Amino acid sequence: xxxxxxxxxxxxxxxxxxxxxxxxxxxxxxxxxxxxxxxxxxxxxxxxxxxxxxxxxxxxxxxxxxxxxxxxxxxxxxxxxxxxxxxxxxxxxxxxxxxxxxxxxxxxxxxxxxxxxxxxxxxxxxxxxxxxxxxxxxxxxxxxxxxxxxxxxxxxxxxxxxxxxxxxxxxxxxxxxxxxxxxxxxxxxxxxxxxxxxxxxxxxxxxxxxxxxxxxxxxxxxxxxxxxxxxxxxxxxxxxxxxxxxxxxxxxxxxxxxxxxxxxxxxxxxxxxxxxxxxxxxxxxxxxxxxxxxxxxxxxxxxxxxxxxxxxxxxxxxxxxxxxxxxxxxxxxxxxxxxxxxxxxxxxxxxxxxxxxxxxxxxxxxxxxxxxxxxxxxxxxxxxxxxxxxxxxxxxxxxxxxxxxxxxxxxxxxxxxxxxxxxxxxxxxxx
Length: 431
Ligand code: S3P
Prior knowledge:
With 431 residues, the chain is of the alpha/beta class. 30% of the residues lie in helices and 29% in strands.
């Protein structure tokens, strides 16, 4: 699918954002392992969280969408109630589905296979296989990735608890090990030298201590997640596209109510403000385990910024749209220490460099990041999402600042996290 986006002079109104994707995956998985019924308000229609649901259904979990109150009901099966799937579990494009589910499947007394689309099959899975093997699971990869076969069948009894120091700052790896820890005999501790998003430990209510600057997160085996009604904030990562779009527009006033404000997720807000963005956060509140606020953003003159070090995992998904902000900012915007971008849904450094250059930007890609010089006059062109949802949406934001019209091929990729993106963009730009 192609989308054509024209230069915009104003963004105003209220954006209807999807519920947070990371939290929704976890709410579904934890509900499935709980004892009793759970409700998740506003569970997203986006393809990634729906992949988690369809895998859970294949594992015997009953789910029901209730139109009346827009919530999803999940019947928990407890820690030992999942059923062996009769076919490979298709995780679609979703790394979170595959890596978190792998932790749960490692603890099951049956064999299962996880697979996904071509992008997901190309992503590295040794990072989860290594700790799961240490815990006693059998994990067979295909060329270091999926399809991956997981078996607990040859093992008598539960998994072995481990203490595992993360070699890569990854919330997916952390969560995989902690979820496997629910099926281990005793306490499993993940040591996290650099803090990645912390939804799993918040939602499971795990104990977290800090030693020598590293977080130690401990899961106790045999304790099922508590069932409850989950209230999920709006997705900060989805909001990020509109925060930049409304900052670089000449006019407007845009509202993003109920946006997630978890500090392990929203470092991009601090970066944008450091660039000079005019973003107001009101009614900060915490519902359930996650903070949220109502954001208002207005146009501003942006300055270039340098970003690297331990903040990177807290804004990793926002770097494609940060590069777009860089094209409109005075001076150089440079991102370093972000080599993980090379192994996301696509190589996001290469994809953004290519797309922004096609629009006339000067971009220097590095192995671990990129630099953009601004402000640059952008001109509409044909660009490609490379099948990556965040690249599609970031290039759409760049298109709003480009003179004339930009055609984005592979625009359907936005379905993965934000199916309403194109409609919302059209509505708030009056396009
Ligand atoms: C996610 C963790 C991050 C992030 C991804 C979602 C999660 O990936 O990029 O979009 O929900 O745990 P890594 O764990 O690979 O850093």
